[in-house]
């Protein structure tokens, strides 16, 4: 769902653009409760990049900040400066062709966990061993829970559909996904800054769904205590969330 471009457009409409300094304590106080207490790498590198402004992507020439959502590459930030996360399963993200790249948080996962995340554009769907794969629904429905069969089958891959809610059905009903156990995430609430008109707050942004799935998988399927192993998947998301909340507050829209 929406990330950097929405933030840039919002700032361009503000008469006074707030400048974020190295101390983000006041910004984080604006964040919603679910993003509190995360074990995140330092955001200092993003502070510096934000103050510098947009740069051209070396691959496509697009004007970007932090990363290029088209090329899935960093812009103005080095790989050594951001966290790289090892995931317990491989993740495939299937993006609807009409989903705007700049409105997707899926790229966050690809950049932060490059060895474990692969992105596809529908109708391109990889072949799956269906007894080793689950696909995750970002919106509630009549589905099975992730923990029902995770100890029966050696789960190796998880599929996420990256699209608007109205576009999801076309991909989810594709015959190539038939037979995959569907996982429902229904107890989490989104912190996404762009409200989904007519949709409940349990409809998650893609990066939120990936994070919450892995957190639950770690606890309930691997049977291990969760101590922040995947919190850095929200490295970009939490930073943008804080920036946008601060911009809204400055504009009197909080």
From TrEMBL:
Domain of life per record: Eukaryota
Upper classification of the organism: Eukaryota, Metazoa, Chordata, Craniata, Vertebrata
Primary location class: nucleus
PANTHER family xref list: NATURAL KILLER CELL-SPECIFIC ANTIGEN KLIP1, TRNA-URIDINE AMINOCARBOXYPROPYLTRANSFERASE 1
Protein task: Catalyzes the formation of 3-(3-amino-3-carboxypropyl)uridine (acp3U) at position 20 in the D-loop of several cytoplasmic tRNAs (acp3U(20)).
Pfam families noted in UniProt: DTW
Catalytic reaction list: a uridine in tRNA + S-adenosyl-L-methionine = a 3-[(3S)-3-amino-3-carboxypropyl]uridine in tRNA + S-methyl-5'-thioadenosine + H(+)
Keywords, comma-separated and alphabetical: Nucleus, S-adenosyl-L-methionine, Transferase, tRNA processing
Domain DTW positions: 64-249
Entry's localization field: Nucleus
E.C. designation(s): 2.5.1.25
Family label: Belongs to the TDD superfamily. DTWD1 family.
A GO molecular-function annotation: tRNA-uridine aminocarboxypropyltransferase activity
Residue stretches spanning the membrane: none
GO annotation, cellular component aspect: nucleus
Name this polypeptide is given: tRNA-uridine aminocarboxypropyltransferase 1
